[in-house]
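REQUEST FORM: STRUCTURE PREDICTION
Request ID: SP-0412
Submitted by: Lab K.M.
Chain count: 1
Length (residues): 191
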Amino acid sequence: LYFNLAGVYDKQGNTEKAIKHYQLSTRYNPRFAYAYNNLGLIYEKMGEKTQAEKNYLKALKYSPNYDYARLNLGTLYAEQGRYSQAKSLYKTVIAHQPENAWAHLYLGNVYFREHHYNEAITAYQESIRLNPKYATAYYLLAVSLAKVGRSDEAVTAGMNYIHLSPNGSFALDIKKLIVSLRLQHVRAQSK
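STATUS: Completed
RESULT:
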């Protein structure tokens, strides 16, 4: 009951009541991993990263195979620059669920932040193979391909993004990238 109420309060934006009710649900069921994970999400949104981490870790303590909490903790670590810990968490999710497109995408994001673009490309390609309708993965793939000089492939990935999300949040950026790559190609041909 408390868990369900907490979810309602969370959706309504009543963070204080959501936290209170998730905490009550863990008081009555101290091993309730879902409640700890949701507390982690709320604390992370509030900028309370230490509390978020503690709750994600509790969720994993009580449910070691709870990969959603593992993904959330990995995202928190990645945002904090704790890349090796984030990669380890994402790789564990992939070992449990090789078909988890999000885990591959998030792993690619960490590789990208580390400037390991070829590894990012591989991860993004796998994410796209698993979820070919996720436009943002094509954007990220295009940018990574451009970073390593694979311009033709970057243009193709960018066009796939535009096809899936012509007015998406990265549409203008990807269009600029495509134009820039095509101009580079033309300049290289004219030399």
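NOTES: The two ends are 71 Å apart (CA to CA).
Reviewed by: T.R.
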